[in-house]
Design goal:
Layout (H helix, E strand, L loop, with lengths): L2 H15 L4 H43 L6 H7 L1 E4 L19 E5 L2 E2 L21 H17 L4 H5 L2 H7 L4 H33 L9 H29 L3 H30 L5 H15 L8 H14 L11 H36 L6 H13 L3 H29 L17 H5 L10 H32 L4
Antiparallel strand pairs: 1-2, 2-3
Helix pairs in contact: 1-7, 2-4, 2-7, 3-14, 4-7, 4-8, 4-9, 7-8, 7-16, 8-9, 8-13, 8-16, 9-12, 10-12, 12-14, 13-16
GO molecular function: ABC-type transporter activity
Pfam families: ABC2_membrane_2, DUF3526
GO cellular component, one term: plasma membrane
């Protein structure tokens, strides 16, 4: 195979592609869509983060504004945790519009994350949101298929291929040159999105400590480059193996429909059928049932906590909780919080395991579907996938538990041992302790976690690239000019 000939066929493809007005129209429309998606993504990111930061600030002000109060009442007063949008979510929306972004944090209860964008939107959201990732993963493939479906088959029909082969050209040179030519066109469409994203990371209204956003952007860039390369080769392969341009176009459209719509929807339905999830009511009932079975810290006659009281009195060598060197009510609340948090985590982990199995059914289709592979990579590295949502839940629960236990420790230390309830204005802790407890701050998921989550998609895309070029090489030995 001669590189000069490969370059010659690539340039010939580009010359023919830009000879017609079609590509300019497509490029113009795509640029307009890119501009709209970029403005929408950046605006949504900036506005949502500004709103959530403001609500987080107000929640903190409300917490600190509490006067001297009994710590247990503060534990039930609680606070809020708001999920911040990550910088690259302006590129890929993922599932963020369908998951909540705020949760109320209080003692003894693990509340659901609420206030999703979908909950406040019209039904049009079900048709998807126009993002730059959507343009690359759904719209651009159609454009490439449209530009590449007739590249080889039309030259076979008009006899050009026979002339080229008779003059010494090789099939491998022709196919590779045309595939690279289509790939260059794909990069031309891709370039504005890359430029906009880079400019946003440099000049956008984002935190100064954006951390590994550039590393995430690099993986996103390389992942989509590989994806577009696979599509370019696939277009040429289908064009070469088809007997007519019409058949080639129908085949490529069928592939797009199969991999973009049918396979993902089918995998999702299969996952839901194989691994059904309990209803919200049954989940909450199961948690409450186990908590009551283990022991209710608010019930003075609970057998478990009565045994605990006897053991505490024995250890300290006293006859009554009023003789203990700490407030026994705070001690009971602390132990009750440990128990309820442990039981909730057990049930929550079990529920997440079901969701993980459901998602795995779809994720494993990435081995056969490059569209799913690049989607999984895109969501993982922008923090808009299910793992990113679960990571926020974990951070919020950790903060909630620390807040509740800090209030219990304050009760044990500062409230007298003889005090049995939280009523009145005497048995209180000074307001300065509320200010000392730090505010909630949502941190982005670790890069290593994103790499692990997207590993199957990454290896799948690499495998598709290898498979595509091996298929191109095999086809070059079997293809015919007639």
């Amino acid at each position: 195979m001669r590189r000069a000939n490969v370059g010659l066929f690539m340039r010939h493809f580009l010359k023919n592609a830009f000879k017609t007005k079609v590509i300019y129209v497509l490029l113009g429309i795509f640029m307009l869509l890119t501009a709209y998606a970029a403005v929408s993504g950046i605006t949504n990111y900036s506005q949502q983060n500004a709103i959530r930061l403001e609500h987080q600030r107000k929640a903190r002000q409300s917490w600190e504004a509490n006067p001297d109060k009994h710590p247990h009442r503060m534990a039930h007063f609680g606070s809020f945790a708001f999920r911040m949008k990550q910088p690259l979510s302006m590129f890929e929306y993922g599932i963020e519009s369908f998951t909540g972004n705020a949760v109320f944090l209080e003692a003894h209860r693990q509340n659901s994350v609420n206030f999703s964008d979908a909950g406040f939107s019209t039904g049009t959201l079900r048709f998807g949101e126009l993002s730059m990732a959507m343009l690359l993963q759904l719209v651009l493939p159609l454009i490439l298929f449209f530009l590449g479906f007739s590249v080889v088959v039309s030259e076979r029909e008009n006899g050009t291929l026979k002339i080229l082969l008779s003059q010494g050209a090789q099939w491998k040179e022709i196919l590779l040159g045309k595939a690279l030519g289509l790939f260059v066109v794909a990069l031309l469409f891709f370039a504005p999105i890359v430029l906009v994203t880079m400019l946003f990371l440099v000049f956008g209204d984002i935190p100064t400590d954006i951390g590994d956003s550039w590393q995430r952007f690099l993986v996103l860039f390389l992942g989509h480059v590989l994806f577009l390369l696979v599509l370019s080769v696939l277009s040429i392969v289908v064009s070469t193996t088809s007997r007519s341009a019409k058949n080639a176009l129908l085949t490529l459209l069928g592939i797009w429909l199969l991999m973009v719509v049918l396979v993902p929807k089918t995998a999702q339905a299969v996952g839901n059928a194989l691994y059904p999830t309990p209803s919200k009511l049954s989940f909450q009932s199961a948690v409450e049932r186990d908590v009551i079975k283990k022991g209710d810290s608010h019930n003075p006659d609970d057998p478990y906590f009565n045994r605990l009281k006897d053991s505490v009195l024995t250890v300290h060598g006293v006859d009554s909780v009023t003789q203990l060197p700490f407030n026994y009510g705070g001690f009971v609340m602390r132990e009750g919080e440990k128990t309820s948090a442990h039981l909730y985590k057990k049930h929550h982990d079990s529920l997440l395991n079901i969701y993980e199995k459901q998602n795995n059914v779809s994720r494993y289709t990435a081995v056969l579907n490059p569209f799913v592979a690049v989607k999984n990579i895109s969501m993982a590295f922008t923090g808009t996938d299910f793992k990113g949502y679960v990571d926020f839940q974990d951070q919020a629960e950790t903060y909630r538990y620390q807040l509740a236990q800090e209030m219990n420790e304050l009760q044990m230390e500062y409230i007298g041992a003889r005090v049995k309830n939280s009523e009145g204005k005497v048995n209180v802790v000074r307001q300065e302790h509320w200010e000392e407890f730090p505010d909630f701050e949502h941190r982005m998921q670790l890069l290593q976690s994103s790499v692990k989550e997207a590993s199957l998609g990454i290896f799948s895309l690499l495998g598709w690239v290898l498979f595509s070029f091996l298929g191109l090489g095999y086809l070059s030995k079997k293809a015919k000019a007639l």
